[in-house]
Amino acid sequence: MSSSPMECAAKVTPRPLANSIRGLSDRGIAWLFVAPTIFLLLAINIFPLIWTIYLSFTNFRANRIGREVKFIGLRNYERILSDPDIWQTMQATAHFLLWTLFFQVLIGFTLAWLINRKFKGNDMWTTIIVLPMMLSPAVVGNFWKFLYHPQTGLFNYVVQFFTGVDSSSFSMIGDVSLAPWAIVIVDTWMWTPFVMLICLAGLRSIPDYLYEAASVDRASKWRQFWTITIPMVLPFLMLAVLFRGIENFKMFDLVVQLTGGGPGSITELTSINLKREAFEKWRTGYASAYAVILFVTVFGLASIYVKALNKVKER
Amino acid sequence: MKLTNLLALTAIALTGVSSSSAVAEDLTLCWASWDPANALVELSKDYEAKSGNTMHFEFVPWPNFADRMLNELNSGGKLCDLLIGDSQWVGGAAENGQYIKLNDFFEKEGISMDDFIPATVVGYAEWPKNTPNYWALPAYADVVGWTYRKDWFSRPELQKEFKAKYGYDLGVPSSLAHLKDIAQFFQNRKIDGKTVYGAAIYTERGSEGITMGVTNVLYNYGFEYQNPKKPYDMSGFVNSAGAVKGLEYYKDLYNTGTPPGSSDWYMSEDIDAYKSGQVAMQMNFAFVWPGMNADSNVGGDRTGYFANPPGPAGQFAQLGGQGISVVANTEHKDAALAYIKWFAQPEIQKRWTAMGGASALRAVVEDPAFPDKQPYNRAFLDSMAIVKDFWAEPSYAELLLAMQDRVHKYVIAGQGTAQEALDGLLKDWIQTFEDEGKL
What we know:
Chain A is mostly helical. In chain A, 72% of the residues lie in helices and 0% in strands. Chain A has 14 helices and no strands. Chain A is extended, with a radius of gyration of 27 Å. Chain A starts with a helix and ends with a helix. The longest helix of chain B is centred in the first third of the chain and has 22 residues. Chains A and B meet through loops of A and helix 3 and helix 19 of B.
């Protein structure tokens, strides 16, 4: 008579261990299994978060390990919230976030709607469209820097071709009024395909019989679009907006490669500014307070958004 | 007999093993990734041959050099035994115990700081400044200066047109005002069928670029870091009327005499612009001059060199260059010190300069034959005689980034006025020194 795997495992378990496990409840064993994960989470997520909150109330600098660390209360928070430069980076981030989301949703949904129609070469076009999002953001930032070059960049020549404006008379990344749009254009170019793919998934999940029934009821294409397509795709769109919103709030690499935050600090987004405070100026306590403020902002906005998303799904 | 031979061989082998394990060490030298670093690799082969030690090198591109190396020092890393660090790091590295103090070593080995160019000793080795406390040996003497297209400047038709327009001869600018005239003269000019521009200047925002550029003008217009009689008293010195005029000058030069798209340029972009024939003049550290001289497009007689021209308040130039230090965390302190001892020898310093380095040893640069050895040597000597350096305080990174931000916002982005930019800078610097407990 052959033994079951459980019996085999019981046989090879050392007696002292078997005795101690035998005394554990199912709940105890469950805790035993999840304990390593919880420990890791505490060590790499929760502890750094608590430590950051603690540091935010001090004058600690990571490059002066021997120096006395003083508790300074809310001074870091006061300085951040009353610093016009910080508010400027917040504005730059808001401009970048809102416009990239707007263009990516608009163009992404339009492309998805077009691709969803059956036509020859459909798959090939889908592959071509999604190519930009497969590239590294640092590479994209670098080659758009060349594309934007006033003397040799293709972008400026295209603008000259269509508008007649001299290509060397404007600099997309050197002009304070154009640079914020330069980063919006590049991010839109790179990440619109991502929004398109999510919208495409939404469009393909709509059952054909809904359109057939609407046609039988003599609903126009326009009405079908607003009463079937949009409501059915909306949860997918909102999910895409959530993903892109979170990503763009912490945007760093692409913009650093493209403009370095300049000219002046017109494209210095919060994550770039935070990195400069923390790892270039080494104002660790100040940067910790800054990080806490950003964390609370993102967490708060994301929570409100997720609640709205759930409501849309429930409808 | 056989046993005797065997014992003898064993003894020889053991001696060899023990001696090599006692002497041969692996040393890592960290520096920026640039041409002089390659020259140092070649030069160090002599040290390897003489000492039996093996040299390893860790070179980091300039834009990341400070980030990478200061992280290394701050985290107590053991990557570097020797570090050729920027002059501004010396204060922080000394106060935070990251470099080994070299006074006793210099005294023991007979290395005298009097043998080096005084400005390089103050700039690269001393902390506190102007006190005999040495943390580095001057390793690479460097300074911001200018190159110009001698072949364009000597064209009769351009000389004639320039004279008619400005009333003086086109040549090496004798003042910053003349330099701007020349830059504007060449701006958008067609030369050999190609549009060219005035000057490539430092405008980079991310690391130290625009500060290393604008200070060459600010100093000459009267900017001072602090009251010479009262340390850290900066009001009226950082934001003096002269300094404001200097900053306005730099912005005007950027707006009217530089190539389009040069809003974030530093050393390599300036080199590219000059070598590709885009600009008539180039601001850059002197380390690029050997490369310019050897370049097939612009080298030889086609390029001339000059020190930063004077302004209304005098003639100064921004100090560059670095000293070589022993990192306190090294496990090979003796071998690292031996490297510095070897490097300090006059014949090695002479060879260092010949191979593309830039010695700060007076015996090398004060050699009567030195000024005529290379076409740029005279400009180098003129420049080294007028140097000034940025803060070398432990909080230098914060001080530097504040200046980068304030100046870039005004000069490149056109935000606010020069007075507001310098007042803002003063406020930032006061805040930093208050945080440091120095104010």
